[in-house]
Specification:
By secondary structure, this protein is of the alpha+beta class. The chain has a single domain (69-240), classed as 2-Layer Sandwich (Muramoyl-pentapeptide Carboxypeptidase, domain 2). Helix content is 48%, strand content 10%. It has helices at residues 16-23, 25-31, 37-51, 71-86, 92-120, 131-147, 190-202, 231-240, and strands spanning 153-156, 163-168, 207-213, 223-229. The chain has a four-stranded antiparallel β-sheet with strand order 1-2-4-3. A hairpin with a 6-residue loop joins strand 1 and strand 2 (163-168). Helix 5 crosses helix 7. The longest helix has 29 residues, at 92-120.
């Protein structure tokens, strides 16, 4: 194969005459141009117009409580979260644990937001100190704040007095989740379990919360959030009777 001399324009090292031409004052005006006064005024006007738009941080929390998030956007975001987490875990138990941790971070913020809105309303904020009242709060108000609807059931375990169950027949978080057969025991509602656990911890009712698939022919996505309370909670409940 014959060797050809590279084109001068493709040469990495330029000649001294070319370098001096690029650095000369006469050529600098053609290579770099300053914005005109008219363009500067136009840019300032656009910035001023943009500053008049409503900022999300300026919206009052009480008036935005009815705002809804697009279901498709939420499904896409949660799907990406599950896929991102799945690539960084070693098994189903580890995946559910990571989803629980992510949900816990959301739950702390949900509780803070709910109390902030209560304090800003005309009603005086009420601190719940009884177990059933707190579980009802989670079953209704927390579910509505996160999913826009109340849960479908709240039950107490017959065998274990320290266990309660919140049942959601059609959890929004599971509607667009397709679990493969080798992951049949996976419950992506572990994310919801983390939210519940954070709320209970914030209300001084510590518990271990897990999610379990309890599907039936009528509700294929039926999920049970199992709440296992710590012993100190039951002891305090006995003293309050």
């Amino acid at each position: 194969m014959a060797y050809t001399q590279p084109h001068p324009r493709l040469s990495v090292v330029s000649t001294s005459s070319q370098s001096s031409d690029h650095l000369s004052p006469t050529n600098s005006s053609t290579r770099f141009s300053l914005p005109s006064a008219q363009s500067l005024h136009a840019a300032a006007a656009s910035i001023k117009a943009g500053s008049n738009r409503p900022n999300i941080y300026d919206r009052p929390l009480n008036k935005s409580r009815g705002a809804e998030v697009s279901g498709s956007a939420f499904a896409f975001l949660f799907s990406e979260i599950v896929q991102y987490t799945q690539k960084r875990v070693s098994g189903i138990n580890d995946l559910e644990r990571q989803l629980n941790t992510l949900g816990y971070r959301i739950g702390t913020r949900v509780l803070e937001l709910m109390f902030w809105r209560t304090e800003g309303s005309s009603k005086a904020p009420k601190r719940e100190i009884r177990l059933l009242s707190v579980l009802t709060l989670v079953h209704t108000q927390v579910w509505k704040a996160v999913f826009g609807k109340a849960a479908d059931g709240l039950e107490r375990s017959v065998e274990n007095p320290d266990e309660y169950m919140i049942i959601d027949n059609d959890p929004p978080i599971e509607r667009h989740i397709s679990v493969p057969k080798d992951f049949s025991s996976l419950s992506c509602s572990s994310f919801t379990a983390g939210i519940v656990e954070a709320v209970l911890d914030g209300l001084s009712f510590p518990a271990r919360v897990t999610a379990h698939n309890t599907a039936n022919p009528q509700f294929p996505n039926r999920t049970t959030i199992l709440i296992k309370l710590e012993k100190s909670v039951l002891e305090r409940e006995e003293l309050l009777k």
